[in-house]
């Protein structure tokens, strides 16, 4: 059975697609057969960030409608083996995704031997976002260290525990992970942003990763290369740590402090 993981947030523009691309690439790089699905119908950003926009022939909605099969629509990544992308449709019909259709695709992907199915959610808390999270086993709640983002993430946590399949069927709840993105220690110290501890205290879910605000992200998305492939970059390293933690490894958090002082030295007051 595949692990179905939704990358969600509520608030738009916080880094879901950047994170979906990086995390799926990281999992595949470690040998796990992974597919990343773009649920953002009408926008289609994921294939740009993954650098495969010119190779899109069929999309998610074509498969749901029976105009193409999964093998025709899946794009195999050229850099990383075991990595596949299912692009979003550019249709304006926001209701093009049906629950039965999405369920069939997820089951078929699982039968095809995918270990991880990463669902890149659209912003908001309406139908598209609900569809992206409905079948999830786990959720990566992507949050920026600012009040409006944290508030929307809190709303999404409520939805995960009430409107998902696991909730409706009374199963074990979705496993929730906090991913803080665009973190800037300088701005935290100036009092312009919430700290890691502030956000953790409000959302009270386990911390999976902290990704710094980084020029490398823009550079990577312009080049169509998920930032995790830039293994020299701060954001790339932090996404690699995030993937390792998702796989159960313990990793220290880095780039949480201005200058040299580490997270633990601050935590323990040394
Ligand atoms: N760690 C980071 N450092 C700097 N910029 C970042 C970082 N993460 C994301 N960004 C930038 O923030 C913007 C939004 O990122 P992204 O498209 O991944 O967000 P999203 O949550 O998927 O947005 P939407 O809700 O519209 O789908 C992009 O311009 C991206 O390059
Ligand atoms: Mg997006």
Automatic annotation (TrEMBL):
Q: Where is the CobQ/CobB/MinD/ParA nucleotide binding domain?
A: 5-227
The answer on whether this UniProt entry bears the keyword Cell cycle reads yes
- Which keywords has UniProt assigned to this entry? ATP-binding, Cell cycle, Cell division, Nucleotide-binding, Septation
Q: Which InterPro entries match?
A: CobQ/CobB/MinD/ParA_Nub-bd_dom, MinD, MinD_FleN, P-loop_NTPase, ParA/MinD_ATPase
Listed SUPFAM superfamilies: P-loop containing nucleoside triphosphate hydrolases
Write down the Pfam families for this protein, in alphabetical order.
Answer: CbiA
Which residue ranges traverse the bilayer? Answer: none
Span of the signal peptide: none
Subunit field text:
Interacts with MinC and FtsZ.
Give the protein family: Belongs to the ParA family. MinD subfamily.
The free-text function statement in the UniProt record for this protein reads: ATPase required for the correct placement of the division site. Cell division inhibitors MinC and MinD act in concert to form an inhibitor capable of blocking formation of the polar Z ring septums. Rapidly oscillates between the poles of the cell to destabilize FtsZ filaments that have formed before they mature into polar Z rings.
Q: What is this protein called?
A: Septum site-determining protein MinD
Supply the gene name: minD
